[in-house]
Each structure stands twice: as C-alpha cells, then as structure tokens.
Amino acid sequence: MGVCLQHFKMDSDKLDISGYFNISGLVGFFHAAMVCLIGREPDSNAARRYRWVIPVEDPCKCTEIRPGGINNRTPGRHFKVIYFDTLLVSKSPMEIRKWLNCSGKKTFAIVN
Fold first, then answer.
1. pLDDT of 49-93, one tens digit each?
2. Residues of 74-107 as b/e, b for ≥16 C-beta within 10 angstroms?
3. How far is CA 47 from CA 16, 43, 50, 67, 87, in A?
4. 106, 97 Cβ separation under 8 angstroms
5. So where are the chain's domains?
6. Apex 84 CA angle, 66 and 99, nearest 5
7. Secondary structure class of 38 (helix, strand, coil)
8. Which residues, 6+ apart, have CB-to-CB distance to 63 below 8 Å?
C-alpha cells in the first residue's frame, strides 16, 4: 500500500500538480528491515537452563539483531523458537543469515 502526498493549486483553467509525489517505494523500503531482539529465557528442553533466543517465527528475516531482555518464564508461543548458546549482535543481514545457517539466496540493499 503506497502513500501519496498531494498538493494541487488551481490557476484559472489550469491544474498544477507539480507538488504531487508518491512515496510508496520509500514506505515499502522501511517495511523491508526487520530488527530483532535476542534475549535470555529458560529452555524447557535443556533443564530450564537460560539460553539465548530470538523470539520471532522466522529469524532468517532479521536484518539487525539487538540485545533484548530476560524472561523468567518461557512464554507460550504459537511457533517454535531456536535456542542458542552463543550471542550475536549485528547490523549485517549477511552475517546474521550466515550465523543462523539460513538457506536460500537473499539480496539486501546497502544503506549508508
């Protein structure tokens, strides 16, 4: 869904739409980034030992991983999560996909 910003100015019989522009591509770009938090919580499959977790359905969609919080209880989720013994904090989608062993080719826009 795009967002159009419009500015119309009427001069007698002419319609000036010089201020019209569409930012749908820009809005779509912002939706492409997925910032994920990596936190700690008890892993019920590992004697309730606290382990690292990225609590999203598909961590391979993460374009950035930031440190998150600690859960004292394992939350109920409608999807299965993967627990980790190591921590990654990164702004590199390629590094994240490599660390998570994501399959398939994915291209990313480099933004400075």
1. 999 999 999 999 999 999 999 999 999 999 999 999 999 999 999
2. eeeeeeebebbeeebebeebeebbeebebeeeee
3. 69, 7, 9, 24, 20
4. yes
5. 1-32, 33-112
6. 65
7. strand
8. 32, 33, 34, 35, 91, 93, 96, 108
Q: Per-residue pLDDT for 27 more than 90?
A: no
Biggest CA pair distance of the chain: 78
pLDDT band at 103 (very low <50, low <70, confident <90, very high): confident
Other residues' Cβ atoms within 10 Å of the Cβ of residue 11: 7
Q: Tokens 């993460």 sit at which residue? A: 62
pTM of the model: 0.64
Angle at 88 between CA 76 and CA 103, to 5 degrees: 80
Give the whole-angstrom CA distance, residue 14 versus residue 29: 35
How far apart CA 74 and CA 68 sit, in angstroms, is 15
